[in-house]
Each structure stands twice: as C-alpha cells, then as structure tokens.
Amino acid sequence: MNIAIVGCGAIAAVHAESIFSMKGYRLSAFADIDYKKAADFANRYHGKAYNTYEEMIQNEQIDVLHICTPHYLHVPMAIYALEHGLHVFAEKPPVISYEQLAQLEDLDQLLPGKKLGFCFQNRYNPSVILVKKLLESGDTGAILGGRGIVTWNRSEEYYTESSWRGKLVTEGGGALINQSIHTLDLLTCLLGSPVSIESHTANYHLKDIIEVEDTMEAFIRFENNRTASFYATTAYPVNPPPLIEIICENMTIRIEELDVTYYYKDGRIEKPQIESKAGLGKSYWGCGHQDCIEDFYQSILSGRPFAQDLNGVKNTIHLLLCAYESARTGREIRIPKEVH
Ligand SMILES: NC(=O)c1ccc[n+]([C@@H]2O[C@H](COP(=O)([O-])OP(=O)(O)OC[C@H]3O[C@@H](n4cnc5c(N)ncnc54)[C@H](O)[C@@H]3O)[C@@H](O)[C@H]2O)c1
Q1: Which among 82, 128, 130, 327 is placed 20 to 30 Å from 143, CA to CA?
Q2: Are 156 and 189 in the same domain?
Q3: Closest protein CA for atom 15 of ligand 1
Q4: Residue 310 and residue 287: Cα distance in Å, rounded?
Q5: Whole-model pTM?
Q6: What is the domain range of residue 58?
C-alpha cells in the first residue's frame, strides 16, 4: 500500500517512523504548507514532497492518507481525501464541533467503501487491554465508576512554536480536546456509554497567552449508574503518567500508562506482569501508534471493520463536545440518545 502524510510536524514523525518499520507499506509522499518540512520527510523516507495535499493526491497513487495537521483541518481534509477515493487515518481529535460531526455523519452514508479511522493509540496499551478483559470477565464484581486524572505541563513555548495551538478556532479547546482526550476516551472504553456530563473550565497559568482552557474538571454519568470524576490540567510542573482508576465491587484497579495495580477488598495489592513496550517520540504520547496504524491497515486489507471508526469513537466525541457545552452554559448536558 502507498501511504502519504499531510502535516509534517511533531506527531507526523511518530507516524512516519512507525510505518517505516512495518513491512509491506511504502511512505510515498508528504505534504506541508511549510514545504521544507515536507521535503525533510521526503528525503528521510525516499518519498515526494508537496506544498498542498490536494496537489499530492492529484499526482500520486495513494491508498491511505494520514492526517497530522492542526485540529480544525482534520474533517475538511478527511472529506476531501475520502471523496477522492483514499482511506484516511486521522489524528485526534476526530472533530472540533457539532457541525464537523454532522459533516462526517453525512459522508459515512455516502462513501461506504472507504475507511476513516482515528488515532486513539492508548487503547492499544497492554495495560488497557488487560484491564478491559478483566472487567469483561465479571471477576471484579459490579463496576461502580472511576476517575481520570491528567496533570501535565504545556509551557508558553509549546504554544508559540505552533501558532494553531491555544486558539479556539484552530485548536477547538485546550487541556481536554488536545491533551486529555485519550484519558476521556479510555474512560468510555472501560466504563461504557456516557449518559451526561457536567464540567467547568479555567485558564490558570497562561492567561493572556492562550484562549483555551488549561484546566477542565467534570462529573460524568454512565449507564448502569456508574459515575466518573475527571480532572485535566496542563498547568502542572511536569508530565507524570495519567491515572485511571476503576472502582469495582471486589477491587479497585489503577492504570498508570503501562503500569497496573489491583487493590483487593481484603487488603491484598497485586501488580500483574505487563509486557513492556517502548514508544516513539515524547513519553506522554504512549507506545500504541504502531499497533493502531497496523490494525487500521490490516482492516483495509482484510475488509473487516476498524474499531476506531466514526461509530467506535462517537461516545468520546459526544462527551468532548458536551463537556465544552456544559462549561459554556453551566448546565449538565445529556449525551444524545443515539450513542448509548
Ligand atoms: N495521538 C497523540 O498522542 C498525539 C500527540 C501529538 C499530537 N497529536 C495530534 O496531531 C496533530 C498535529 O499535532 P503536532 O503536535 O504534530 O502539530 P505541529 O504543529 O507540530 O504539526 C502540524 C503540521 O501541520 C502543518 N500544516 C498546517 N496547516 C497545513 C495545511 N493546510 N496543509 C498542510 N500542512 C499543514 C504545519 O506546517 C505543521 O508542520 C494534532 O491534531 C494533535 O492533536 C496527537
């Protein structure tokens, strides 16, 4: 398969390196409005460089387009590529607004043959897979709820080095839509379908520098009377692993990136053996990109569904959009019924 990347910035390097180390795929073209960035990738991976992705799609035989551009561009670029017959693998977030979600839903009806997959690589962490299986086994007793805590640091330089960051119109939000969306996504994977969310946002440490929130806290209701507390900030001094805790009748489970701990009711504490895996790029990007990309490609080759298609990430999309709506209006927002 011929693969192309649009947006040759920080995360594109992880996509390119992952694809380069997989057998049977050719990195054939790269596009970036900053042509030098596309040329650097093209030199490194022996592909062609373009200034625009439209030109790249017109001139190359591409099977899959990876979208690694700023948030507001994911949907228009995905639509253009799908309409031109490509499969699309897009970085998170899948959308930044209800309008963009509606555009993708319309398209889903029109282009059944082409796949659109989203990069939620942390679903592939061995720790998450292990805990999901354990929860599904019923051995934990009833699942009561949980919490997701992300305390990270994003400095002024992080926002000035890429000017789309920190602006509502191009980033769509801050600590939630950009940094802690993976933790929100994992809560939906482990706790099930969300029913409502109530949230608050704040900007504590980069006032006058960013328009978006650096902190978001939320209370989420899930089906089966489960609830979760959520807290995300980018105003912390360092970047420790996010904490996900699941409270069950018989035990409490903690996931900290690849580390899992079981706290049994009788006081026993156990750490299951987890396969260690090295990630590419920044430690907080995790180690799942390659597995996620490979799974997407295999789904194309075999014709089977890809779990992180539009439907597979809808709970997360709705929670995300409803969290911002709640923060704006001060109301608890119900998640649209179609999802659960
Ligand atoms: N999955 C993860 O854990 C993870 C981690 C980091 C970033 N991301 C996501 O990846 C995306 C990119 O983030 P980044 O940190 O690499 O940003 P970045 O600013 O480093 O890179 C974005 C690139 O897109 C290019 N670009 C902008 N507009 C363009 C256009 N119209 N056509 C072609 N190229 C264009 C820019 O020149 C830049 O090179 C974001 O959606 C971000 O949320 C995901």
Answers
A1: 327
A2: yes
A3: 10
A4: 23
A5: 0.96
A6: 2-118
Give the pLDDT confidence of 14-58 residue by residue, as tens digits. Answer: 999 999 999 999 999 999 999 999 999 999 999 999 999 999 999
Tell me the CATH number at 210.
3.30.360.10
pLDDT 10s digits, 293-302: 999 999 999 9
210 lies in the same domain as 237: yes
Q: In the sheet that 2-6 helps form, which strands lie side by side, from edge to edge? A: 48-50, 26-31, 2-6, 64-67, 87-90, 116-118
Please report which confidence band the pLDDT of residue 340 belongs to, taking 50, 70 and 90 as the band edges.
very low
Q: Which residue, by CA, sits nearest to atom 29 of ligand 1?
A: 33
Indicate if 202 and 321 belong to the same structural domain.
yes
DSSP of 89-103, one letter per residue?
EEPSPS-SSHHHHHH
CA nearest ligand 1 atom 6, residue: 11
**Of 102, 118, 134, which residue constitutes the final position of a domain?**
118
Which atom of ligand 1 lies closest to the CA of 38?
A: 39
How would you classify residue 22: left for phi > 0, otherwise alpha for psi between -120 and 50, otherwise beta? beta
Ligand 1 and 92: CB distance under 6 A:
yes
Instruction: Tell me if 65 sits within 8 A of 4, measured CB to CB.
Output: yes
Q: Is the CB of 65 under 6 A from ligand 1?
A: no
How many independent structural domains does the chain possess? 2
DSSP letter for 241, please.
Answer: P
**Ligand 1 contacts CB of residue 39 (under 6 A):** no
Same domain, 8 and 58: yes
